[in-house]
C-alpha cells in the first residue's frame, strides 16, 4: 500500500512539473505573439519585430518543447518538479532583480515592458537549463543508489546463501565423519569376523584332522575284536560291537564332511569358465553304479558354461543328483536337470526329483550343518551335504533354495519318453535351484 502511495505521489509530481514548464512555455509564446501585435500597431520595423519576438517567444518555445519531451530524457519522473522549480527560480530571481532596480528612480525600467519580458524569458530558460542538469544529476544519483541497494540486497542474499551452504557443509562434514567412523567400525568388525572365521576354519580343520586318527584306531580295534572273538561273543555282544563300529564309521564320515566344509574357502580351486555339460557327464560316471542299481533316469536339457571352481561345482551337482535318487521313493527315480538364464549375468540351475517332497517348515533347516529329515535307518548320510552345497554356491556369489510340494504318494510320470527340457514347477517332488555367474562374451 505504501508503495502504491509513493508511486501515486511520484506520478502526480511528474505531471505537475511538466505542466508548470509547459505552461511557462505557452505563456511566453502567447506574450511574444501579443507583444508582436503591439509592435505592429506601433509600426515598428520588421527587424525589431522579429528580434523581439525571438527573444520573447524563443525561450517560450524552448520551454514548451523541453517540457513536452521530458519523458523521453533520462530524467526520472519524480525529478520533473526540480526542472519546474529551477525554471520558476530563474523567473523569480530576474523579477526580484528588476524589482530592486525599479527602486532606483533615476535608472528605472518602468517604461520598458519589452525589456522585462525579454529578461524574464531568458532567465526562465536559464533556470530550465539549470533544472535539467540538476534533475539529470539527481536521476543518475538515484540510479546509483538503486543499484547500490540492489547490490546490497544481492550481497545480503549471497551472504545468506553462503551461511546456508556453510551449515550444509558443516552437516556434510559431520555426516562424513559419522560415515567414516561407521566405515572404520564396519571394517574393524569385518576384520574381526574374517579373523574369527579363519580361526574357526583352522580349528575345524585341526579338530577334524586330529580326530580322524583316533577314530580309525577305535574302528580298527573294534573290527579286530569282532574277527578274533567271533565264535566267543554272544549275539548281544556282536550287536553292540556292530553298533560301535557303525558309530565310529559315521563319526569318521561326519568329521570328513566337516573337514571338507571348512576347506571350501581355503582349499578351493581357481574360478574360471566351466562347461556344466562336461561336469554332469563326470557326475553320471561317478554315480553310474547307484544309477544302475536304482534304475534311475537322469535327464538334462542344454547346460551352459559358467564361471566357477569345476571341482566344487561337481560336488554340488553330485550331491543334488545323489539326493534326488536317494529320496525318490519306491518307483524308479527320475531326475530332471535344467538351466534358465535369469538375466544377462546369472544362470539358474535346477535339479528336480519325483520324491515325496519337503515340508515348507523344513525347507531352510535342511541347509544347516548335520540337519537330517530322515532317520539313518531309512537313509544313510552325514547331514552335511546340502550345507556344503550352500557354502560352495555362496563362494561363487550365488544362492541355493528348494521349491517343494509335499506329496507322500506321488503319481508316476505318465510320459515314458525323456523330456530334455522339464518343467521344474510341475506338482510333486522337490526342485533344488542354485545360481551361478554366467561366462562373459570375451571368455566364450
Strand-pairing-aware structural class: alpha+beta
Count of extended strands: 7
| Beta-strand percent range | 5-15%
Computed Rg: 56 Å
Low-confidence stretches: 1-12, 375-379, 414-427
Biggest sheet descriptor: 5 strands, mixed
Shape: rod-shaped
Kindly state the percentage of residues in helix. Answer: 55-70%
Distance between the termini: 80 Å
Strand order of the largest sheet: 2-4-5-7-6
Residue-averaged pLDDT: 78
Q: With helices defined by DSSP (H or I, 4 residues minimum), what is the helix count?
A: 9
Give the SSE string: HHHHHEHHEEHEEHEE
EC number: 2.7.13.3
Pfam family, one: HisKA
InterPro entries: HATPase_C_sf (IPR036890), HATPase_dom (IPR003594), His_kinase_dom (IPR005467), HisK_dim/P_dom (IPR003661), HisK_dim/P_sf (IPR036097), HisKA_4TM (IPR031623), Sensor_kinase/Photoreceptor (IPR052162), Sig_transdc_His_kin-like_C (IPR004358)
Catalytic activity: ATP + protein L-histidine = ADP + protein N-phospho-L-histidine
Describe the structure.
The protein has 444 residues and is of the alpha+beta class. It contains nine helices and seven strands, in the order H-H-H-H-H-E-H-H-E-E-H-E-E-H-E-E. It has helices at residues 2-41, 46-68, 80-102, 113-228, 235-262, 276-286, 288-294, 310-326, 385-395; strands spanning 272-275, 297-300, 305-308, 334-343, 346-352, 400-404, 430-437. The strands form two sheets. It has a five-stranded mixed β-sheet with strand order 2-4-5-7-6. Strands 1-3 form a two-stranded antiparallel ribbon. The longest helix has 116 residues, at 113-228. The radius of gyration is 56 Å and the shape is rod-shaped.
Amino acid at each position: 500500500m505504501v508503495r502504491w502511495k509513493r508511486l501515486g505521489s511520484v506520478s502526480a509530481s511528474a505531471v505537475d512539473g511538466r505542466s508548470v514548464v509547459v505552461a511557462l512555455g505557452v505563456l511566453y509564446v502567447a506574450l511574444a505573439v501579443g507583444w508582436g501585435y503591439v509592435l505592429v500597431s506601433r509600426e515598428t520595423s520588421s527587424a525589431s519585430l522579429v528580434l523581439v519576438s525571438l527573444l520573447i517567444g524563443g525561450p517560450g518555445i524552448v520551454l514548451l518543447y523541453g517540457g513536452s519531451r521530458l519523458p523521453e530524457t533520462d530524467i526520472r519522473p519524480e525529478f520533473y518538479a526540480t526542472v519546474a522549480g529551477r525554471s520558476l527560480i530563474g523567473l523569480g530571481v530576474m523579477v526580484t532583480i528588476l524589482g530592486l532596480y525599479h527602486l532606483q528612480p533615476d535608472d528605472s525600467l518602468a517604461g520598458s515592458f519589452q525589456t522585462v519580458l525579454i529578461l524574464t524569458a531568458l532567465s526562465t530558460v536559464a533556470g530550465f537549463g539549470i533544472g535539467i542538469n540538476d534533475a539529470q544529476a539527481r536521476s543518475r544519483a538515484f540510479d546509483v543508489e538503486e543499484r547500490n541497494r540492489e547490490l546490497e540486497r544481492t550481497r545480503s542474499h549471497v551472504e545468506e546463501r553462503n551461511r546456508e551452504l556453510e551449515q550444509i557443509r558443516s552437516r556434510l562434514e559431520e555426516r562424513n565423519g559419522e560415515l567414516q567412523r561407521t566405515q572404520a567400525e564396519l571394517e574393524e568388525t569385518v576384520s574381526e569376523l574374517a579373523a574369527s572365521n579363519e580361526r574357526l576354519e583352522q580349528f575345524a580343520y585341526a579338530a577334524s584332522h586330529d580326530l580322524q586318527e583316533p577314530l580309525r584306531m577305535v574302528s580298527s580295534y573294534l573290527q579286530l575284536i569282532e574277527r578274533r572273538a567271533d565264535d566267543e561273543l554272544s549275539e548281544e555282544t556282536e550287536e553292540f560291537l556292530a553298533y560301535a563300529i557303525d558309530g565310529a564309521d559315521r563319526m569318521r564320515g561326519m568329521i570328513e564332511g566337516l573337514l571338507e566344509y571348512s576347506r571350501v574357502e581355503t582349499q578351493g580351486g581357481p574360478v574360471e569358465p566351466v562347461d556344466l555339460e562336461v561336469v554332469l557327464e563326470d557326475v553320471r560316471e561317478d554315480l553310474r553304479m547307484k544309477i544302475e542299481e536304482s534304475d534311475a533316469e537322469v535327464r538334462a536339457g542344454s547346460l551352459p558354461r559358467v564361471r566357477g571352481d569345476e571341482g566344487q561345482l561337481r560336488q554340488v551337482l553330485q550331491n543334488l543328483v545323489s539326493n534326488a535318487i536317494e529320496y525318490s521313493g519306491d518307483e524308479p527315480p527320475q531326475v530332471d536337470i535344467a538351466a534358465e538364464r535369469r538375466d544377462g549375468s546369472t544362470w539358474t540351475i535346477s535339479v528336480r526329483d519325483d520324491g515325496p517332497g519337503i515340508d515348507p517348515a523344513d525347507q531352510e533347516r535342511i541347509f544347516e550343518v548335520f540337519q537330517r529329515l530322515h532317520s539313518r535307518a531309512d537313509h544313510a548320510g552325514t547331514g552335511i551335504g546340502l550345507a556344503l552345497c550352500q557354502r560352495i554356491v555362496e563362494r561363487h556369489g550365488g544362492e541355493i533354495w528348494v521349491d517343494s510340494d509335499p506329496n507322500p504318494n506321488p503319481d508316476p510320470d505318465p510320459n515314458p519318453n525323456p523330456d530334455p527340457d522339464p518343467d521344474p514347477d510341475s506338482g510333486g517332488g522337490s526342485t533344488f535351484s542354485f545360481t551361478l555367474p554366467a561366462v562373459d562374451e570375451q571368455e566364450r
